[in-house]
Known about the structure:
Elements: E1 16-19, E2 25-30, H1 36-44, H2 48-55, H3 64-71, E3 78-85, E4 88-98, E5 111-118, H4 127-141, E6 146-151, H5 156-163, E7 169-174, E8 177-183, H6 188-210, E9 214-218, H7 227-237, E10 243-247, E11 257-258, E12 261-264, E13 276-279, H8 286-296, E14 300-303, H9 313-328, E15 332-334, E16 340-343, E17 350-353, E18 361-368, H10 371-382, E19 394-399, H11 408-416, E20 423-428, H12 434-445, E21 450-454, H13 472-481, E22 485-487, H14 490-502, E23 510-515, H15 518-530, E24 534-535, E25 539-540, H16 547-559, E26 565-570, H17 578-593, E27 600-604, H18 608-614, E28 655-656, H19 659-679, H20 693-704, E29 710-711, H21 714-722, E30 731-733, H22 737-747, E31 751-755, E32 769-773, H23 776-790, H24 793-796, E33 798-802, E34 808-817, E35 821-828, H25 831-834, E36 839-843, H26 848-857, H27 875-891, E37 895-905, E38 910-912, E39 915-919
Parallel strand pairs: 5-6, 9-10, 9-13, 10-12, 13-14, 14-15, 18-19, 18-20, 20-21, 21-22, 23-24, 23-25, 23-26, 26-27, 27-28
Antiparallel strand pairs: 1-2, 2-3, 3-4, 4-5, 6-8, 7-8, 11-12, 16-17, 16-19, 29-39, 30-33, 31-32, 31-33, 34-35, 34-37, 35-36, 37-38, 37-39
Amino acid sequence: MQTSSDRHEYPAHWEADVVLRDGGTARIRPITVDDAERLVSFYEQVSDESKYYRFFAPYPRLSAKDVHRFTHHDFVDRVGLAATIGGEFIATVRYDRIGANGLPASAPADEAEVAFLVQDAHQGRGVASALLEHIAAVARERGIRRFAAEVLPANTKMIKVFTDAGYTQKRSFEDGVVRLELDLEPTDRSLAVQYAREQRAEARSVQRLLAPGSVAVVGAGRTPGGVGRSVLGNIRDAGFTGRLHAVNRALPDGQKELDGVPAYRSVRDIDGPVDLAVVAVPAEQVPEVVTECGEHGVQGLVVISAGYAESGPEGRERQRALVRHARAYGMRIIGPNAFGIINNSPAVRLNASLAPEPPRPGRIGLFAQSGAIGIALLSRLHRRGGGVTGVTGVSTFVSSGNRADVSGNDVLQYWYDDPDTDVVLMYLESLGNPRKFTRLARRTAAAKPLVVVQSAGSAPQGHAVRATRLPHATVSALLRQAGVIRVNTITELVDTGLLLARQPLPRGPRVAILGNSESLGVLTYDACLSEGLRPAPPLDLTTEAGPEDFRAALSRALADDTCDAVVVTAIPAIGEESAGDAALAEALRSAAERAPSKPVLVVHVELGGLAEALSAATSTAPRARGATPGTTAPDTAPEPGPAAQAPDGTRLIPAYPAAERAVRALAEVVKYARWRREAADPGKVPEYEDIDEKGAARLIDSLLTRGQGLTLGTEETCELLGRYGIQVRRALPAPTPEDAVAAARALGYPVALKATAPHLRHRADLGGVRLDLADEEQLRRAYAELTGLFGTPEELRPVVQGMAPRGVDTVVRAVIDPAAGAVLSFGLAGAASQLLGDMAHRLIPVTDREATSLVRSIRTAPLLFGWRGSAPVDTPALEELLLRVSRLVDDHPEVVAVTLEPVVVATEGLSVLGASVRLAPPPARDDLGPRTLPAY
Length: 936
């Protein structure tokens, strides 16, 4: 695209799709010599006022010299980017490197002038803000550290683009012009601005899909049955409040309706705008439909059609082409191979899915990548009996299918500030961007519960995901750290979601148990112990207990300050009629309403009447006049406010058919409530005066000159760690007995003799270590034993090390994962971590509070705190070590792996006996760069 005289080839990696403020998309790419006609056409559509603001004078048209200048770039000192929709320019930005005198310059000059021009029709969509992020990233890549811009005072929109970006800046006024200087180094504020814009844009893009004013179903068959005709009927029967159109290119002449819906042969024939198109035609016909929709101004697509990446390599390429095609017109896609979307808001009432009957309206947001799982979830939430009874409804539902474009991250952005959603349930078969999902999950979970089932297997064939080297258990632990309620099954997902949707968060793990069955109470008690709760002994009301007995007992339990939650167990009385069930349900509800801050759960056994009575008010629609309890008035508003109350103020109590299910849900909610409390004060990343960050950076730079990936030697490892205050106990090589004796004299007795060969390293159980050698005789004897058992010194690689104080052997690791980011791990050395996988994990950077919780998170943590009469070890020293390792990896992303093993933690202090460090160019961090959609 550029001529041979240009200094750099076309930088394809600068191309990106972005979501704009209004939810539409645009493509950002470098401007090339082939764009001359596009540039002229673009400029002709810009108003005279905007041209004046750009050039500070009337400038009606571009000269040939201008066109040449604005399309010929070297992609180093002169760079131009364009935002395009449908292949045409809607905005441009360029920078020119300048020297201290303000004239054109080359490197090492690190300042550039920057200027924007946005078509008037697209101003206010956030195009300039997105272009600024991308041109700034390009400039940093080319060694430019500052932007300078001159803006007329009347051009307030452009001034606001610069001042709102969050970069460190200087502002001056001279000769009637505002001069702005921006430092391009990302700051906390610039990242916060970027994330806030990302959230608003992506949330808006999903809102446009979920709340359209008009919908066209493309592929609605002429005869009943079929996917398109079914979706059309579902939208119509749900009472969609907007305009609905049917599209079928095979409609006979003269046919104007299909099932009472206006029908057309093409989207182009529809009079008026179409916000959403549901596409249900064979895959080979989809490109033509996308073109029609794009030319008609459709804002988004739900592609039900199959035959894409789930079908193999050919389908995968077809899917990539579909995404590129739709984004070229500024459209977002749910799908392909999607089950559909549902919005129960009374202002929308959209069921653009294959579900013949939408779930009851409510305040649960539901996301499923799999259509089959989506069906199962909707079915469970719709049923009143069987499984978990007493159903709470759904605000919105999204089944993303192959997740080619819109993903769980996008929907999470929407639910974060959706006033109609209080609880989020997600079934994820894959995590396309774990780092971003963790960031979004942490923010969402601080405001509303997020419950996730994540598949442990490989990603489905239709999903494009980046690879992670972390085990599934580690990813799960990191999600929990971000506040995600991580469950294992669909049943647990629904159980936990219903509890969160109906009851307040508990203040602690103390549980009261009461009921009319001693055995059921004992089962509940045992389940609480197994889940780490603190149950009080069950209160047996006996089988003679009536509703008033239950009400009184529940009232007393809720009034007890030593109780945080109550589990009520109930079995049916012989010959009891449904009226008794209703009376018991009313007694429990009346007692619960007097203590609105404590959750109440019911475990019932074959008690359908009580389950129905407890859920009689669980429909999130208010009762119509004359309606009887347990019935639902159609087309009514969803419940307001927190989900622990029904619209009429009735306290909703979830009922479970098994004690284990109720207690497991409660345990997850208790952990989440504790996370919410702790998240309010996350702690801080401490500063240590003895850390030499600049010295470490110089050492790393010099070491990386040797190659792209480098495992440091012992001396280099000790030097780098020492820059961060981490001292490694010296170990001297001992290739001969004489060398071992000399090393012991240098270190001082007692010493340890260790084999460091890979198959024996850190394997004291194999006998490759001899400890507490007090003199030369013992050392020579130990040397002979090791070489006699395991081979020659060349095979053993023995070393001599001074003895460390006795303590608990631990291991500290840090690794930079290309998908999840930097992760710090901790566990006990040996079998505990290697065989049992008893390791705890935190995302880097780690705060002081997180370091404290990390040490206490492993199952074997009691060994550190005086288990069975042993002396407690110095855990504050251990926490400081963890914080120093975290700082090292966070400050220097070139440190891609650190292992300290063993770290012997004594009653006072600790000793790092072994260490390894690996350096490499760090993986690219897309969360620090400009906003982009996943590349296709």
